[in-house]
Design goal:
Two copies of one chain form a homodimer. In chain A, about 40% of the residues lie in helices and about 20% in strands. The first copy, chain A, is α/β, with parallel strands linked by helices. Chain A folds into three domains: about 290 residues, Acetylglutamate kinase-like (Carbamate kinase, 3-Layer(aba) Sandwich), CATH 3.40.1160.10; about 190 residues, Aldehyde Dehydrogenase, Chain A, domain 1 (3-Layer(aba) Sandwich); about 160 residues, Aldehyde Dehydrogenase, Chain A, domain 2, CATH 3.40.309. In chain A, the strands form six sheets. Chain A has an eight-stranded mixed sheet, sandwiched between helices. A six-stranded parallel sheet of chain A has the order 19-20-18-17-21-22, sandwiched between helices. Chain A has a four-stranded antiparallel sheet with strand order 25-12-11-26, with no helix packed on it. In chain A, strand 13, helix 16 and strand 14 form a beta-alpha-beta unit. In chain A, helix 3 packs across helix 5 and helix 13 packs antiparallel against helix 17. Chain A starts with about 45 loop residues before the first strand and ends with a helix. The interface between A and B is large, with 139 and 139 residues. Strand 25 of chain A pairs parallel with strand 22 of chain B. Chains A, B: One of its GO terms (biological process) is L-proline biosynthetic process. Chains A, B: Can form homodimers/multimers. Chains A, B: InterPro entries: AceGlu_kinase-like_sf, Ald_DH/histidinol_DH, Ald_DH_C, Ald_DH_N, Aldehyde_DH_dom, Asp/Glu/Uridylate_kinase, G-glutamylP_reductase_CS, G5K_ProBA. Chains A, B: One of its GO terms (molecular function) is glutamate 5-kinase activity.
């Protein structure tokens, strides 16, 4: 889209968009959209606002904030070139509020208020008639809409309809052409039932054919109108999240993300909504009617304070909000079903004998080499597509590629994991005799269901799968689009290996179409999320993952501190390796701290020369800059992760000050001291509070493989569970098993007959799992 | 406050409050409030809306949603009986939007739009003059305010002022009495500068005395007006969070929660705000001027989408929003300073020799018995206060009380922890030789800063403190109001013990006045939150603790499954103990699952008889109910934590079905099987995925002390870090220490000269910490 400046403020403000009347590419009307992502193409949209959305919940006044944000969204979509229509409630509420004012005044309540309010309780209160309220409120409601839409340079028009307007062909034609004309003129029609004159609904007259639906409430009005006007999308907002398969709040109620008409029998309807007429059943009927007429429908909550501000635009952007009604059921399982399958099969995987899990991994290792042609063909496809698209940088392309050598070393790594798998799940960590015949064991168990999100590195898939299988965890994998073909083949091989012990479904590959944000919402079903990718990916996931722990790190601001007593050779080697071996890695050095006494020594010159030779751009910290006559550009922040051939240099007065600096500006990832003084080194190692602390070694050693953990699922800078490079151990948790003989706690109370022994027992090398499954 | 029904809806709707004109107790004007919590008493409040709040950020239209929610909050506070005044911006923005419309029409842009829009780029655009915009916008802006406030039955009045109106005494008197009269009539005055006629600001005329402040912008206008009208509180909303000690975004910028005028020199101001005139410095000057005049001031962000809906009411409720300006600096440190002190001293605590930490705990144990009179006297004070207030249930009173016996057993427990402390921090978990002279160690280290929130149980304080000291963690403690006196004494003793090794400040007691929600916001400073109290407390904290891990469990839905092959005796004993020993405990049984074959057997009758005798109310699960002719009332949900002498009973067909039921409805806390069949038992123990799984033992054994962990900080149902009862181990994390001799990663690459050895080394019993600190 072209962007030109705003007429008024001469900047690129939101209004600029008004001048870019480029309508989204519509589609031939007649069939509804098959997938949420297609909703972006919706050109003509009806937004239905239930009374719970428009009013403050007690029908005694409008919810202005909500209304305003809805107007903002509708105006924005209209200004994108879509044709927006609003079916609104709220006239009665507005009228009540207005008439109430009149009554207050006419009863001279103001005086009463100031003279003492107790007598108010005794005053007789008039009951307001709803139709009178509607009549009195409609004009005010429209004035409010108009005032609000004016703020977005959008014109509105009022259209009041009754049931009869749809039953009489001529009237329907008139209504249709009026609305068409309004839409053509870029005006938002605001439609309501003509409540002041509306006839009582005809019983049982609806749902007997495409052209027969009574307008009993605004749900059916909106549906009728959407079909009549051939709208692409009907968004029905009320105070419920959407559809559940049983009344929400009951034990088994599950939210329905996408509803297919064929599934209708599986729904149990609850009671009516609190405010307004039209319960959930009426909403669903209206939605199905609209769907049959070719209009897609989303039923969503328009009252949730956190989402109201973007519920409509989110829906149009294809996000998982509310329940989407679709006629076309996709072939594969939904991600919820995949998670369910993974969890169930995962439990079987966890109960296998360790040897069996080991066998699966070995078999997968074999398949990687045996079926390498298949894998490499898929990889070539991905590489070709990436090359054609031409958007991947060379480093990314390198990570995307697979070679026979890579597959071989992958297989070797997998076999190491297979060995480690023998001693993972069911390992007894401690045994305690609490009392005679009452023995406690703490044993290792899998965490449950893992979600691993990785970017363009297909070799990640078998590695992570092997770690999950070895630790008995179910696994959901979401890979990047770039490696889709390779990932599919590798996942097939993984499932093939899993099949040998009947646990094929324990590892699931999630469609690349699924949004990470939506996956993070499965908080009742996923136990741990492990993002493997850019720090942006990690941060996004940490933000989105409400309630699910995330294992990983978003930043790696690693330091190398050069002490006065450092060996020149080691400094040069370690600084070079830490920065230059792989500058984009999270364990690369970002800040070089040097002791003040090193300034203006040959060592200092050698460091600078080396960095120049390696083409490392230096940014000066404030103290470093102050010591130099001509300093490099000052670092914008001492907390920068350059991720490139750049680093910050800063001066400190002592080892203690280096520790302080790192505590203040570091990310607790990996930090290094270079010194020949063992005391200084040991103090640094002890005082510094980072996941990895190194003495005379490059920061680049912070890595699961280099640490001898076989493989890693990531590096954690979190302070609980796992810290630093995370291998198999990080994917395990524990459970406490107590075996008694009818023991009860009351016997151990002060008045009781028994005493705790708390005797430590030797931990035998037999796995708990082996005893159980043999 | 009395609640009577609404005039219109005849329910207790939000409007009812209008009729209860009971003003909050005001205070003698003259001095500002000393603490945020006092803001609740503010009777007369000026709300200043900066242009960034009122406009959409580009000054090309109003932010209606924000405006509406501000109106809602102001109306609510007004209806509570407060006197609200609004100082608003936005007339220019409204006018621009309006004039823009005119220009569009007059230039016949609509036609141009439909004929093709490229020529628009070449059209000459008129520049709008701000004063003309203000004139054109003011009327529309007021109409909008009026329409919005009408929704809340609140009347508004427009007041336009200029600098001169304050400088001329007569004019000032007139303005004053006009506003007084409006407030008396319960009308919200909406004040703006008369931009159409406003004279240019006089240079350097402000801040030279109480009566001299120029109205250069709405900040100074609001301050001037607040003081003139003797307002209690001025809320200044703009697009910044409040005050930072350096420009926000720089490395060291710290948010200032409470600003004391004496601290002014410590502030560095950044650039002006993006929208509107009046940068941060002007805001602070205006705020200080108002403060000097006796009006409290809060500067806060009115544009943050997540908080806009309640920013004003939150401030008036005393929540930590924005920067609060106060003249009176409280004696003690702020909670941020306490956390800072705890973290810094905690690092020293962690670097002590294990024996020293052990000594501190032993000393604390001694103090508990030596100084018992002091403790018991404080405890008596708390008990008396609770008895006088009469609001604590007997069980709560019992938990609140301390006795010499309780103190003795506390001291014994502490000495056990002191022993465990010898082998906690700095323990080597694994050692690996990566290469010649390159050795890796994984050692235990403290987590960092813990925040423990506990309710009315003062014995919790020394226990948790001892566990934190033993594990080298800094600790923030927040106890309940009921035990405030006891907690204070116990904390003093803890600090006395800590003083012996110079780490007094490692354990901090947070004022009971601090809101839990506010503490949870210290996410950069606190590493782990441990709530000890009701499941409601835990849930609240889990919700509030964004970004900080929470260790604990919100629910304990424990099951006992009675198998066909169960011993009658053990069933009766275990079910009775599990349910009746302490029904309110989280490890008490909530659901009793019985095998179908037990129905109508003598065992079944005995179970029912026992439960009747113990007065346990039974709720029937759906299957159980279906088997009985006359069943007890059906359970509303199979996921209920009764926490009382009540339980649910349900029937299952097999052990496998019991496991399935528990997986579906349980909370993974503690679940029990009663059977004599070892195979069945072992399968249950293996298949069931709960933190604690017991065979023939009461669920009540799930407890840190009973498990032999010494003491517990809580029971975790989380799946990572710690699971089940959590003792010392759960307060530790690890760090990786690598000692090399100039090793670099590049040497180990494919082209390199070195190979990884990955040789496991024996773990010596020497603590890493001992080597370092000796």
């Amino acid at each position: 889209m072209d962007v030109i400046k705003c007429f008024i403020c001469h900047q690129q403000c939101k209004n600029s968009i008004l001048f870019l009347y480029t309508a989204p590419q519509g589609r031939a009307h007649g069939s509804s959209f098959a997938h949420r992502s297609e909703l972006r193409q919706a050109k003509r949209i009806v937004v239905k606002l239930g009374s719970a959305v428009v009013t403050r919940g007690d029908e005694c006044g409008l919810a202005l904030g909500r209304l305003a944000s809805i107007v903002e969204q509708v105006a924005m979509l209209q200004n994108q070139g879509r044709e927006m229509m609003i079916v609104t409630s709220g006239a009665v509420a507005f009228g009540k509020q207005r008439l109430r004012h009149e009554i207050l005044l006419s009863q001279s309540v103001r005086q009463a208020l100031h003279s003492g309010h107790n007598q108010l309780k005794d005053m007789s209160l008039p009951v307001l008639e709803a139709r009178a309220c509607a009549a009195a409120g409609q004009s005010g409601l429209m004035a409010l809409y108009e005032a609000m839409f004016t703020q977005y340079s959008t014109c509105t028009a009022q259209v009041l309809v009754t049931n009869l307007d749809f039953h009489d062909d001529e009237k329907r034609q008139n209504l249709n052409s009026t609305l068409q004309e309004l839409l053509r003129m870029n005006i938002v029609p605001i439609i309501n039932t003509n409540d002041a004159v509306v006839p009582p609904p005809e019983p049982n007259s609806d749902l007997q054919g495409v052209n027969v639906i009574s307008i009993k409430d605004n749900d059916s009005l909106a549906a009728r109108l959407a079909v009549e006007m051939k709208a692409d999308l009907l968004i029905a907002l009320s105070d419920v999240e959407g559809l559940y398969d049983s009344p929400p709040g009951t034990d088994d109620a599950k939210f329905i993300d996408i509803f297919y008409p064929g599934d209708q029998q599986s729904i149990t309807y609850g009671t009516k909504s609190r405010v307004g007429i039209g319960g959930m059943e009426a909403k669903v009927k209206a939605a199905l009617w609209a769907l049959q007429g070719g209009t897609s429908v989303v039923i969503a909550n328009g009252t949730h304070p956190k989402v109201t501000g973007h519920v409509i635009t989110d829906i149009v952007e294809g996000k998982k909000v509310g329940t989407f009604f679709s006629e076309i059921k996709p072939a594969g399982p939904t991600v919820e079903q995949q998670t369910e399958m993974a969890r169930n099969t995962g439990r079987t995987l966890a109960s296998l004998h360790p040897d069996q899990r080991s066998e699966i991994i070995c078999h997968l290792a074999e398949l990687l080499t045996e079926r390498k042609e298949e894998i490499l063909a898929a990889s070539k496809m991905d590489m070709d597509q990436a090359a054609n698209a031409g958007h991947l940088p060379p480093a990314m392309l390198k990570r995307l590629s697979l070679s026979p050598a890579k597959l071989n070393s992958l297989a070797i790594g997998l076999r190491q994991i297979a060995v480690a798998a023998q001693d993972s799940v069911g390992r007894v960590l401690q045994r305690t005799r609490l009392a005679h015949n009452l023995e406690l064991e703490q044993i290792t168990v899998p965490i449950g269901v893992l979600l691993v999100i990785f970017e363009a590195r297909p070799d990640c898939l078998p590695q992570v799968s092997a770690l999950a299988i070895a630790s008995g965890n179910a696994l959901l994998l979401k890979g990047g689009k770039e490696a889709a073909n390779t990932n599919r083949v590798l996942h097939q091989l993984t499932q093939e290996a899993l099949s040998m012990h009947g646990v094929k479904e324990a590892v699931q590959l999630v469609s690349t179409r699924e949004e990470v944000e939506d996956l993070c919402r499965l908080d009742k079903m996923i136990d741990l999320i492990i993002p493997r990718g850019s720090s942006q990916l990690v941060r996004d996931i940490q933000r989105a993952a409400k309630g699910i722990p995330v294992l990983g790190h978003s930043e790696g601001i690693c330091h190398v501190y050069v002490d006065t007593e450092a060996s020149v050779d080691k400094v040069i080697k370690i600084v070079r390796d830490s920065k230059c071996d792989y500058p984009a890695a999270c364990n690369a050095m970002e800040t070089l701290l040097i002791h003040r006494d090193i300034l203006r020594t040959p060592l200092f010159d050698q460091i600078i020369d080396m960095l120049r030779t390696e083409k490392v751009k230096i940014h000066a910290g404030p103290r470093f800059a102050s010591y130099l006559t001509f300093s490099p550009s000052e670092a914008k922040s001492l907390r920068t992760e350059y991720g490139d051939l750049e680093c910050c240099m800063e001066v400190v007065d002592s080892m203690e000050e280096a520790v302080e600096h790192i505590h203040k500006y570091g990310s607790s990832h990996t930090d290094v001291i270079v010194t020949e003084n063992e005391d200084t080194a040991e103090q640094f190692l002890q005082q510094l509070d980072s996941a990895c602390v190194f003495w005379n070694a490059s920061s680049r050693f912070a890595d699961g493989y280099r640490f001898g953990l076989g493989a890693e699922v990531g590096i954690s800078t979190a302070r609980i569970h796992a810290r630093g490079p995370v291998g198999l151990e990080g994917l395990l948790t524990t459970k406490w098993v107590l075996r008694g003989d009818g023991h009860i706690a009351a016997d151990f109370s002060e008045q009781g007959t028994m005493k705790y022994l708390h005797e430590n027992l030797p931990v035998t090398q037999t796995l708990a799992g082996q005893r159980d499954s043999n």
